[in-house]
């Protein structure tokens, strides 16, 4: 009985006893959820337009953030460093398309997947060679991101929201809306979606595969830079950040590999649920640090009921 | 010239399906085995044993296990390192609970545990396919490594949280632990790896192997011709995890000597996946070629700056290593997506018809 009580009753009692703490936990979960969703978005864009499962997305986040900090350390003003980093991400997108993807067009999925792992390793080595392996401070203040705190007192308690987190959430929301507008309202965006629906049909109406691939990898690079800034402001910039890249994978599973809505909702769900589980079940009952696997196990269970994820395209198989 | 198939006629189906349809293959294998069993142990230095020979064999075995699952049965797995961990921890528990047990028996038994865990995590494969399954195997990867860290019973509640290999004797010879000699360990590893290779070759040529291949090529079609998908996928998971688990036990007991949970983290999984893919999915030979490349390359790269007298710090070399390995993976995928084993097959074809082009 004690055991059942500690699993089924006590966590919820704790939640009701300290609603302000619960709100703090939910806020933390929301912020990390938004960042997972952003990384997952980068994956989804590339997967939709080329069926490439881009494992390098997480490393692109670190690489973009490191480039930004690196430029600033060389004495370049903050905003010009941002522009320069975007330039670097563009060069990266073009070279990945030229050197890696173009020769591998039409190969089985697993080969392309391995190639992106190769890119990941290359970027890790290259980044550490140039920027060094140590943890760096994100140039939060120089970019004009507020660093103060909002303090609320709901239910007579205490709730602390860091302003940089609030900024991150706002910027992420703007980015998502901008991306959706781009995909739905512009010519290029429609071309990306067309390519996602049917490669050959898209090619036959004159959509250039190469241009679109460079474009989606560049957009993924922009998303990576924004994620890198937001996450770097919380935890500093180093290759330890790549673990958050793995977190984007269960988000994809949960949301479905093709769905942008799925990436966002999946990200938020995983961010919130893993924080709740860690605080109310993981730490008291399992010895903590459950965040490393909870998301995967959750996604696995959802997949048992919906093999294509919550929002993925229905898998139709023909013989 | 030397590699000629002319004059070797096959007069029965049995001869056609023989393990070595070409006589030269058997000779080549005999030469390689002679090297592995006699010449290398006599000539190799301690350094060569520890940095090249033993790890190459162990990595090949792990890659072979993965290859059964990914290359033959078509189920992509990213959790290999965790299953190696299960093997290693199972072996550790076996030899600490029953110290009288023969260490080789313990190593072979520990695979059974990892096979069990493998089947458990393989059950979702009946419903989940492709990349979704690959990510699902990551659940095993992260969950098991977490378990190795948090479940004190697994490492006998020692303060460091790591497992230390005790001195183990077999017929009066120390085979594992700090005082074991590299020669003995090499022979134990070689014996087990040879045995497993033989097992794999025959499994993949037999009914089970053909069932796996049918499942890989198109599972619905396989089901329609009467293959039990559940049986086929779960046996692939079981046998693959068994081999991987044995490789994990060897990894810790015959090579590393000690292990922390994070040794079995995701980079090790990827390393083994690289070996299997660069070597060639769906081939046994490929695992060896891949392992030689992936294990040997960093060793060569590490010694290069010294031989040329370049003043590069070891940290820089480390980073350059990672970068070069990454670039080479992409390079090999571009020149031959089907791996080194396919490259060897092409060379063989050319040799057979040499000097004519067709």
From TrEMBL, chain A:
Annotated compartments: Cell membrane
Keyword check for Chaperone: no
Membrane topology: Multi-pass membrane protein
An annotated GO cellular component: plasma membrane
Similarity remark: Belongs to the binding-protein-dependent transport system permease family. LivHM subfamily.
CDD domains named in the record: TM_PBP1_LivH_like
Highest taxon, organism lineage: Bacteria
PANTHER family in UniProt: ABC TRANSPORTER PERMEASE PROTEIN (PTHR11795:SF451), BRANCHED-CHAIN AMINO ACID TRANSPORT SYSTEM PERMEASE PROTEIN LIVH (PTHR11795)
The protein, known as: Branched-chain amino acid ABC transporter permease
One Pfam short name: BPD_transp_2
Major subcellular location class: membrane
An annotated GO BP: amino acid transport
Family matches, as InterPro entries: ABC_transp_permease, BCAA_transport_permease
Entry's Gene Ontology molecular function annotations: transmembrane transporter activity
Keywords assigned: Amino-acid transport, Cell membrane, Membrane, Transmembrane, Transmembrane helix, Transport
Presence of the UniProt keyword Aminoacyl-tRNA synthetase in the record: no
Transmembrane segments: 25-45, 52-72, 78-101, 110-131, 166-183, 212-231, 251-273, 285-305
UniProtKB/TrEMBL annotation, chain B:
Cellular component per GO, a single term: plasma membrane
Organism in which the protein naturally occurs: Donghicola mangrovi
Protein name according to UniProt: Branched-chain amino acid ABC transporter permease
Membrane-crossing segments per the record: 26-43, 49-69, 76-95, 101-123, 130-148, 184-203, 234-256, 268-301, 322-347
Keywords tagged on the record: Cell membrane, Membrane, Transmembrane, Transmembrane helix
Subcellular location: Cell membrane
GO MF annotation: an example: branched-chain amino acid transmembrane transporter activity
Record flagged with keyword Ribosomal protein: no
InterPro entries on file: ABC_transp_permease (IPR001851), LivM-like (IPR043428)
Entries under PANTHER family matching the protein: ABC TRANSPORTER PERMEASE PROTEIN, HIGH-AFFINITY BRANCHED-CHAIN AMINO ACID TRANSPORT SYSTEM PERMEASE
Membrane topology qualifier: Multi-pass membrane protein
């Amino acid at each position: 009985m004690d055991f059942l009580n500690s699993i089924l009753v006590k966590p919820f009692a704790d939640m009701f006893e300290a609603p302000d703490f619960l709100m703090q936990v939910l806020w933390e979960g929301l912020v990390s959820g938004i960042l997972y969703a952003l990384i997952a978005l980068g994956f989804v864009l590339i997967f939709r337009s080329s069926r490439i499962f881009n494992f390098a997305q997480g490393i692109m986040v670190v690489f973009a953030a490191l480039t930004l900090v690196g430029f600033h350390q060389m004495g370049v003003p903050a905003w010009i460093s941002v522009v320069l980093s975007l330039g670097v991400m563009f060069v990266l997108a073009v070279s990945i398309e030229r050197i890696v993807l173009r020769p591998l067009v039409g190969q089985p999925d697993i080969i392309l997947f391995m190639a992106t792992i190769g890119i990941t390793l290359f970027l890790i080595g290259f980044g550490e060679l140039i920027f060094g392996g140590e943890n760096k401070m994100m140039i939060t203040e120089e970019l004009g991101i507020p660093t103060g705190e909002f303090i609320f007192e709901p239910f007579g308690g205490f709730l602390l929201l860091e302003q940089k987190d609030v900024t991150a959430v706002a910027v992420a929301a703007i980015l998502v809306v901008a991306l959706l507008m781009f995909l739905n309202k512009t010519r290029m965006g429609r071309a990306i979606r067309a390519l996602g629906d049917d490669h050959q049909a898209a090619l036959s109406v004159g959509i250039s595969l190469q241009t679109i691939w460079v474009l989606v990898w560049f957009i993924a690079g922009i998303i990576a830079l924004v994620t890198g800034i937001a996450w770097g402001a919380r935890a500093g910039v180093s290759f330890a950040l790549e673990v958050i890249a793995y977190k984007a994978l269960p988000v994809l599973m949960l949301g479905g590999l093709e769905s942008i809505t799925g990436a966002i909702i999946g990200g938020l769900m995983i961010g919130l649920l893993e924080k709740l589980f860690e605080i109310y079940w993981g730490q008291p009952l399992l010895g903590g640090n459950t965040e490393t696997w909870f998301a995967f196990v959750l996604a696995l269970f959802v997949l048992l009921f919906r093999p294509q994820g919550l929002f993925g395209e229905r898998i139709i198989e023909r013989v | 010239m030397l590699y000629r198939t002319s004059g070797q006629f096959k007069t029965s189906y049995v001869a056609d399906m023989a393990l070595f349809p070409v006589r030269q293959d058997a000779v080549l294998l005999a030469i390689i085995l002679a090297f592995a069993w006699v010449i290398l142990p006599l000539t190799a230095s301690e350094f060569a044993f520890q940095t090249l020979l033993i790890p190459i064999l162990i990595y090949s075995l792990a890659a072979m296990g993965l290859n059964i699952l990914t290359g033959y049965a078509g189920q992509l797995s990213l959790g290999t390192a965790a299953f190696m961990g299960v093997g290693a921890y199972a072996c550790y528990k076996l030899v600490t609970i029953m110290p009288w047990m023969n260490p080789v028996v313990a190593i072979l038994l520990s695979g059974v545990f990892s096979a069990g865990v493998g089947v458990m995590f393989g059950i979702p494969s009946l419903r989940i396919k492709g990349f979704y399954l690959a990510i699902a195997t990551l659940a095993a990867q992260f969950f098991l490594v977490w378990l190795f860290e948090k479940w004190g019973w697994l490492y006998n509640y020692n303060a460091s949280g790591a497992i230390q290999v005790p001195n183990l004797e077999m017929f009066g010879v120390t085979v594992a632990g700090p005082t074991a000699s590299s020669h003995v360990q090499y022979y134990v590893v070689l014996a087990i790896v040879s045995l497993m290779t033989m097992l794999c070759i025959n499994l993949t040529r037999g009914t089970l192997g053909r069932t796996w291949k049918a499942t890989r090529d198109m599972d619905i079609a396989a089901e329609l011709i009467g293959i039990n998908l559940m049986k086929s996928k779960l046996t692939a998971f079981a046998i693959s995890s068994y081999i991987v688990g044995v490789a994990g036990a060897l990894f810790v007991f015959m090579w590393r000597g000690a292990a922390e949970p994070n040794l079995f983290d995701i980079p090790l999984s990827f390393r083994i996946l690289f070996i299997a893919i660069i070597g060639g999915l769906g081939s046994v030979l490929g695992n060896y070629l891949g392992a030689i490349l992936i294990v040997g390359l960093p060793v060569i790269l590490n010694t290069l700056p010294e031989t040329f007298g370049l003043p590069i710090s070891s940290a820089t070399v480390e980073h350059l290593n990672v970068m070069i390995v990454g670039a080479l993976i992409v390079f090999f995928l571009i020149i031959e997506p089907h791996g080194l084993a396919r490259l060897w097959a092409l060379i063989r074809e050319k040799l057979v018809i040499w000097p004519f082009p067709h």
